[in-house]
Amino acid sequence: MKNYSDSIGIDVSKTYFDAIIFNLSIHRRFTNDAKGFNGFNKWILKQGLRLNNVLVCFEHTGYYSLRLSVYLNEKGIDYSQIHALHLKRSIGFRRGKSDKVDAKDIARYAWLNREVIILSVPPTPNLIKLQQLKSVRDMFVRQSVALQNQIKSFDVVGDHKVSGAAKKALKAVLRNLEKQISKVEQEIRDVIKSDDELRRNYKLCTSIVGVGLVVALEMMIHTQNFTCFDSWRKFAAYCGTVPYPYQSGTSIHGRHRIHPVCDRRMKSLLTMAAISAIRADPEIRMFYQRRLDEGKPKMSVINMVRNKVLARMFATVNRGTPYVVLSKHAA
After folding, report:
1. Under a CB-based contact definition with an 8 Å cutoff, are residues 52 and 77 in contact?
2. From CA 94, how far away is CA 88, in angstroms rounded?
3. Which of 86, 117, 277, 286 has the maximal Cβ count within 10 Å?
4. Which residues does residue 55 pair with via DSSP β-bridges, in sequence order?
5. Regarding beta strands 243-248 and 54-59, do their DSSP bridges make them parallel or antiparallel, or are they unpaired?
6. Which backbone phi and psi does 82 adopt, to 5 degrees?
7. In terms of DSSP H, where are the helices of the chain?
8. 217-236 per-position pLDDT tens digit
9. Mean pLDDT: which of 48-52, 79-83, 199-203 is highest?
10. In this predicted model, what pLDDT tens digit does every residue of 85-132 receive, in sequence order?
11. pTM recorded for the entire structure
């Protein structure tokens, strides 16, 4: 455990960020660019603090905080990016809101949790590129689904003379979108192939039945290529696939429940991977059916399969060898 002399809370926005040194109760605002970062550096030194002895904490705000995280890493300053919802719940009820107050709350959180807080590192350039390509693909897919639904709605009319022209225009746009999605997916594969670590982990993940490009890509982005989480159980808790006990005293003895605070997109993708695994993997299908026969609720069993898929991905990456379906080699 590092003995920090102080903590600094930062509230990041698009054009500037507010910083507060917790124990000194000093506030300053800087521009969110190279000039502001250098000013922030000088400001810390001016207060008599050492760069390697302070803990900086701020919310994970995507691209707005990316440049700051890269700068802090280059300067050797310990920092931690915290999920906004986690910070909000840890702070508790509060009336009103301002950037200065938010920065102070973050600084207090960092100081109180300095012994257990997990330090962050910025993603690699290739991971940033994959994140951007994934965002573009997600946008194209949403637009494609919207166009398909609109085309189906025109079919309700039933008269080609009425809706034919509109459907023709939409189908032309849809075809172009599908081409763009294919191009983006190919660019994603090219980026993965160009990086040895990304290529290795991608091949290991996709060796598991039910895991394809989209799930493997999301896993590598969310875990920063399996460096942010040291076990599948911690990542399962983050995704919201871990059931927790629900009981109190002698009167409340409910079933274990999954917490609603989670990464809903990752959880949804794991559900699709679990369904695919149930259909295509004989071992998983046998496990799924056996649990249903025992009287387990369907969604509870699907959640078990989600965790099995997660465990297999982490196991193959940690072991460094592809997953082997044992039923294929059974005598």
Report:
1. yes
2. 10
3. 277
4. 7, 78
5. unpaired
6. -110, 140
7. 34-46, 63-75, 84-91, 99-112, 125-154, 160-194, 196-206, 213-222, 232-239, 264-280, 282-293, 298-319
8. 999 998 999 988 888 998 88
9. 199-203
10. 677 777 766 666 788 888 999 999 999 999 888 888 889 999 999 999
11. 0.81
Name the residue type at position 78: D
pLDDT-derived band at 331 (thresholds 50, 70, 90) equals very low
| Contact yes or no for 265/215 (Cβ under 8 A) | no
With a CB cutoff of 8 Å and minimum separation 6, the contacts of 157 are 163
Calculate the alpha carbon distances from 79 to 23, 210, 246, 288, 321 in Å.
17, 36, 35, 43, 33
Encoding tokens for residue 290?
Answer: 């056996």
Q: With contact defined as beta carbons under 8 Å apart, do 57 and 9 qualify?
A: yes
Q: How many residues does the chain have?
A: 331
Please give the structure tokens belonging to residue 259: 């917490």
